[in-house]
Amino acid sequence: MLQILSREFVYLRFYFELQFVQIFRYWVLGIAIGSFISVFAKDRIHDLFRAMNGRKWGILGIIPACLLGIASPLCMYGTIPIAASFSRQGIREDWLASFMMASILLNPQLIIYSAALGPKVLAVRILSCFLCGIAAGLLLHRFYRGRLFFDFTGFEERASHDSHPNLLIRYLLNVWRNVKTTEPQAAEPGVAENAADTAAETDSSQNTQETPVIYFTDDISPEGLVSVYEALGWTPTGKVAVKLSTGEPPASNYLDPALIKDLVQSLDATIVECNTAYGGMRAATAEHYQVAEDHGFTEIADFQILDEDGYMEIPVTGGSRLTGDLVGAAFTDYDSYVILSHFKGHAMAGYGGAIKNSSIGLASSRGKVRIHSGGTSDTRWHDELHTEFLECMAEANKGVADYLGDRIIYINVLNRISIDCDCDGNPAEPDIHDIGIAASFDPVALDQACIDLVWDAEGSESLRARIEGLDGLHTLEYAEQIGLGSREYQLVNIE
């Protein structure tokens, strides 16, 4: 028995020594090159992929996306958080699929390791990984075009380890991390950053329990609107969209372009809307553009109908009615959103404010049907499912808010406060005097504050009866229940 064990030990020692001699130089070279790319080229590679956003490459964009994925030094654990960041910045889903698949399967360090097996194996591995990336993009383009495939809820791009101010030390630290992750106990050779370090954590700011602040002014003027916006201290990123209602002809109470012009132009923003689902002059794209022109919005800024080319789906979590919200296909063309709402009554929801404007308002015409049907249909409107409709509004707003994170704010203008919505071309004359402008990061707190301001106003009886008669406050109750926001707030008056 001892002789057999001794002979086997000799064989094993010879095998591992031979393997070590054969692959050692590739291991060293892979670490050296992988760390160099991770420290000095990783951000550039990812910036190149971000720069593809907005390019008119169509399906052909999966080719550079795949190549950049192979060039990226991240492993699977590092790719997912950075892919979540790309998704929030509006990168096409098929391009993102190609990048992720290629990046997970291959990186420069693994290319060097594969060279130890010979040029044929190396060529096969590179080609097969490239084709897998291409296939992933093609499959999403074919079967999920215009719909959401990835759900990155809860994933955040983490801070890089490669942050030491001294470049040499930064490089050596990265080499050391690579050495540790390619030791025998490592889960995957060639990993530039280990799984524990790259596991995404939910943004702690999502869990803060501070009372939301509502900034308010009774100055309903361009200066007042800009002041209440500036009080938020919010800095938008990238392309900015201002979502408002264009108003149904001939005489609805839409926001006056002269009132909002200074704010919109200061943000270099595009005014955005979606088509309606109930007929009228805003159900068809061409007619809707004409309404926007007739009402003066195209004179002050660029204007786009988000669902003129269809719809896309974003995930909805935390509720019981919706799993996805059908927004306009161009929703991700914009990085930051200002939800600018005219606060008033509504014939179905009881009232219309921030929640309605960012749920039904941002929904495509098909998405509007889904919300109005209580999540039961995308093609048939069910008016009898009233409570379900109210809850779907809250859930759709939550989907938008979760998708955008801190890249969305809400402003309500309380003037011309009719019991009827801006979707009514012949609304009732207001019984309430103009009140002011309010702004917040929390749509639930903002709408609740506006309700309270209206409740205390002289002549509010008819609007209050409409809201209570249609159980409009249930939207706020349910929105708070699912975590969209808080009905508690602190009102801060802006002088």
How would you describe this structure to a colleague?
It is a single chain. This protein is of the alpha/beta class and 495 residues long. It folds into 2 domains: 2-198, no CATH class; 210-493, 3-Layer(aba) Sandwich (Rossmann fold), CATH 3.40.50. It has 18 helices and 12 strands. The protein has an 8-stranded mixed β-sheet, sandwiched between helices. Strand 2, helix 11 (257-266) and strand 3 (270-273) form a beta-alpha-beta unit. The chain is elongated.
Considering the chains and any ligands shown, give keywords for the structure.
alpha/beta; 2 domains; Rossmann fold; 495 residues; 8-stranded mixed beta sheet; two-stranded antiparallel ribbon
